[in-house]
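Query structure, 418 tokens:
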């Protein structure tokens, strides 16, 4: 509070105080270095502190006394960087490898933080958090401010939750550094919105989207490359980002023993995925953080062979199966969505009341195969492994995993016939 008007209000407030309340206030000032109070015409709590030998008044901007006292204490907490360290001074180097203490601590604890996660957290900080709170003392930022600010962001619900995770990392480190007494992010929850469930595609939908006649197939998808890309999604259930990261060396074949003798099992080795950043698509680990084999049905294999022969791009082992605008850059995530929407229209698929996206191919794949495949095999191929499954397959080699899916190859082939 500053200015003659503010001082007048404070003086009037002090004149109206009883002698005993004044003694208690002075006693607390001497003992703790601050005291909180409310003006008679306001529900907001204020606090006094002593600065440069003079008493100074500050608004806590909260109507909660407990929270006001916490803000006052945080304001007075000493730190290596000064009691009024701003968010910009404290968090300016956060999520920068080699400079960020939080990243170093995660690494020391054996916790893997993917490059995509680091880039995402850094983007939250530079594009949203610092513009909003960069000049503010870290100790002055309240839980209700953070909650209301996150809720007002023009972002999806999941993105808002990730923003909260980013803030939690920043304030957790601030607590350890004695910059603040308490992590304000832990004092509030975001409203849990009911997530809309994607719809799966039926057999009739798949037949309409992937006709056997080449000219009709091209009419739906525009070109052979996109038709093959979508067919791989539908026939294998892999995520779009995983298919976009495929290289030709990931298409493999292995001879396995089956009850009737030996059989060749074709598969995709899923070890990478494309993560979209503000700068460009980036290839990194899969969502589960581990590689897995996925059975490759005959129709998808035939389509891949045809695409490899017709592709205008290089098709060596290390080259991308589905390049984007350049040889070494995968296709952007918006292109499959646009082509998928157009294909639904051309194929006259009924979309009324349905939420259909390229990810719906994955939903359809799981729906078709879950009744036919052993649960552990399905979890292995779709990458939805829980902790027990992680432990079960952690020590298995690629050959052992391919042998496992080879035992059910006919079931998967039957499920992929549409």
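Result returned for the query:
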């Amino acid at each position: 509070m500053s200015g003659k008007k503010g001082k007048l209000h404070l003086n009037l407030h002090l004149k109206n105080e009883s002698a005993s309340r004044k003694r208690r206030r002075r006693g607390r000032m001497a003992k703790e270095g601050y005291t909180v109070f409310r003006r008679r015409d306001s529900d907001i709590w204020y606090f006094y502190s002593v600065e440069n030998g003079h008493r100074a008044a500050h608004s806590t901007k909260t109507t909660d006394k407990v929270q006001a006292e916490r803000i006052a204490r945080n304001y007075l907490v000493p730190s290596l960087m000064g009691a009024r360290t701003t968010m910009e001074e404290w968090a300016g180097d956060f999520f920068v490898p080699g400079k960020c203490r939080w990243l170093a601590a995660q690494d020391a604890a054996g916790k893997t933080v993917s490059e995509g996660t680091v880039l995402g957290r850094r983007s939250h900080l530079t594009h949203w958090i610092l513009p909003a709170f960069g000049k503010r003392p870290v100790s002055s930022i309240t839980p209700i401010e953070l909650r209301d600010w996150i809720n007002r962001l023009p972002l999806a619900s999941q993105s808002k939750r990730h923003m909260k995770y980013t803030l939690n990392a920043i304030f957790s480190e601030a607590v350890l550094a004695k910059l603040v007494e308490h992590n304000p992010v832990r004092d509030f929850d975001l409203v849990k919105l009911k997530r809309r469930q994607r719809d799966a595609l039926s057999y009739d939908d798949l037949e309409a989207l992937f006709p056997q006649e080449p000219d009709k197939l091209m009419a739906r998808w525009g070109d052979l490359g996109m038709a093959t890309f979508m067919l791989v999604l539908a026939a294998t259930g892999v995520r779009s980002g995983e298919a976009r990261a495929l290289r030709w060396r990931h298409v493999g074949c292995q001879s396995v023993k089956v009850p009737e003798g030996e059989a060749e099992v074709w598969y995709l080795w899923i070890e990478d995925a494309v993560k979209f950043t503000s700068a460009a698509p980036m290839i990194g680990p899969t969502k589960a953080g581990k590689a897995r084999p996925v059975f490759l049905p005959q129709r998808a294999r035939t389509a891949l062979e045809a695409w490899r022969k017709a592709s205008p791009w290089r098709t060596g082992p290390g080259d991308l199966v589905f390049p984007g605008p350049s040889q070494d850059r995968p296709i952007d995530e918006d292109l499959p969505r646009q082509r998928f929407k157009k294909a639904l229209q051309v194929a006259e698929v009924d979309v009324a009341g349905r939420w259909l996206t390229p990810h719906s191919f994955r939903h359809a794949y799981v729906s078709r195969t879950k009744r036919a495949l052993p649960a552990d095999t399905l979890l292995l191929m779709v990458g939805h492994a829980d902790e027990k499954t992680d432990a079960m397959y952690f020590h298995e080699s690629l050959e052992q995993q391919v042998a496992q899916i080879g035992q059910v190859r006919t079931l998967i082939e039957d499920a992929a016939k549409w």
